[in-house]
Specification:
With 473 residues, this protein is an alpha+beta fold. It is built from 15 helices and 22 strands. The chain has a seven-stranded mixed β-sheet. A four-stranded mixed β-sheet has the order 1-2-5-4.
């Protein structure tokens, strides 16, 4: 979060999605009540070291890491927050004072703090005890998070229960004390949030997340007919493909098949990190593939794709867009589209904390190809990774900087020309219409239009709603 946005939030004060906690004597119970209520409503930001009026008092710089450690320990305890949740607090400096920001995403589960359900109403955390209110909370979440849709006629016979021993091994490789080791198969599925109740119709059963993660192929086709991932190689025959794999099985084995496709067609360049070799190909494709499998909208008819071309590779999938912008580590506000599936992937070590994938891609892609990735959060979510088989990180750092600079200049000129050409024939187009026409994000269009106006190439005539664009040169 940048300082300008933080200052605006402090000026506005507490809202349905913003809460201030002074925490002069440590993190108190009302902070966890707010965590619970944000999880149960629309998510939000908690700032520690700020009083109720938005005045920053600050925290001890030395004490801040211990506060975060204690906070993570508490929210990971099922006796405190149930179901448990993983959050990543951020230490920030504001006008010379230390504060902690906790970003809480909305959850697909209904959470309890010490066995009590809390909901967010305006700027207050309210206990929820009425059965009707609790039922409405479940219904609301099921409509937002389609992975929670219950299929009462799906049984264990429709699931690949033979995958659970492997799932347990993967979880134990990450955490030798993982709770899944001692749970029965049915207890594991319930613990992972894969079995639930539809409060609207009163039916219990396995949900969409369970079928997508562990379902047999026939069961997956029945609940999500359009689900598939097309893996394509287009280097010689760019109109069709040089190699193709259609993946339509459960998410765990889908990941295996897509990784094999990547290993078959991508170079694994030599790279040393610390004292050992790291597989750049493995790191980058893992982040791309886990994202397209775990965070897609499974109710959409849009086929997901993993495409490898000569100068780039990309994944794309149907999405519930949050920002419509290009995502970078600086503007990252991670929110899980399918929290249960994402949590399952984290438990079996196929994914890390929410948002870490963006940071890892921006760190490792320049070391692999000499250029930055592009991550677009739109109705079709895309991760685009440039490819350069001749690039070597150890011998090409200076060359990469020049190449990135030239590419940015070329992209800027191309975007400007596309927008000017479109506005010549569509002077009353909105920025949303422009973005759709040239297949760029709304944020990119906003930036380019601002640059064109500043350079005198574009002007605006009339009111904001009914005006027109004038291409001056």
């Amino acid at each position: 979060m940048n300082i300008t946005k933080l200052r605006d939030m402090l000026d506005i004060g507490e809202t349905v999605a913003v809460e201030f906690k002074l925490c002069s004597n440590g993190i108190e119970s009302d902070t966890y009540e707010t965590v619970c209520s944000f999880l149960n409503r629309f998510g939000g930001d908690i700032f520690l070291g700020v009083n109720n009026d938005g005045i920053v008092q600050g925290l001890s710089e030395k004490a801040a890491p211990n506060l975060i450690k204690n906070f993570i320990s508490m929210i990971s305890n099922p006796d405190i927050i149930s179901p448990t949740v993983y959050l990543s607090p951020e230490i920030m400096e504001y006008e010379g004072k230390t504060i902690i920001r906790i970003r809480v995403p909305p959850s697909s589960e209904v959470h309890r703090y010490k066995k009590v359900i809390y909901d967010r109403v305006d700027d207050a955390d309210v206990k929820v005890t009425a059965t009707g209110q609790i039922a409405q909370m479940y219904i609301r979440k099921q409509r937002i998070f389609t992975e929670k849709k219950v299929f009462p006629y799906v049984t264990e016979a429709d699931l690949r229960m033979d995958l659970l021993p492997r799932v347990r091994r993967m979880a134990l490789n990450r955490n030798p004390n993982h709770e899944w080791e001692k749970l029965s198969d049915q207890e594991l599925l319930r613990s992972a949030g894969l079995y639930g109740e539809d409060k609207e119709i009163g039916e219990k059963g396995y949900n969409l997340a369970a079928v997508m993660l562990l379902g047999k192929d026939d069961a997956i086709k029945s609940v999500s007919p359009a689900y598939r991932t097309d893996a394509l190689l287009r280097k010689v025959n760019i109109d069709r493909y040089d190699d193709r794999v259609i993946v339509q099985t459960n998410l765990i084995e889908s990941y295996d098949q897509l990784v094999m496709f990547a290993e078959k067609h991508l170079l694994d360049k030599f790279y040393i990190e610390g004292d050992s070799r790291a597989s750049l190909r493995g790191i980058i494709t893992r982040e791309m593939l886990v994202n397209t499998l775990a965070h897609r909208e499974f109710t959409s008819s849009y086929y997901a794709k993993f495409v490898i071309e000569k100068e780039r590779m990309y994944v794309e999938n149907a999405n519930r867009a949050v920002t419509g912008d290009i995502i970078t580590p600086d503007n990252l506000e991670p929110e899980s589209k399918n929290p249960c599936i994402a949590s399952f992937f984290r438990n079996i070590w196929l994914a890390d904390e929410l948002g870490s994938g963006v940071r890892r891609l921006y760190h490792y892609v320049p070391r692999y190809s000499g250029m930055d990735p592009e991550i677009i959060d739109d109705d079709i979510f895309r991760i685009i990774v440039p490819l350069d088989d001749e690039y070597s990180y150890e011998v090409g750092k200076d060359k990469a900087q020049i190449k990135r600079s030239l590419k940015r200049n070329d992209d800027c000129a191309l975007n400007e020309n596309e927008i000017l050409e479109y506005l010549t024939t569509h002077p009353r187009a909105t920025q949303v219409e422009i973005a759709s026409a040239i297949k760029k994000s709304r944020r990119t269009v906003q930036d380019v239009i601002a640059r064109l106006k500043q350079s005198g190439k574009l002007d605006r005539e009339g009111a904001k709603k009914n005006g027109a664009w004038i291409v001056t040169r």
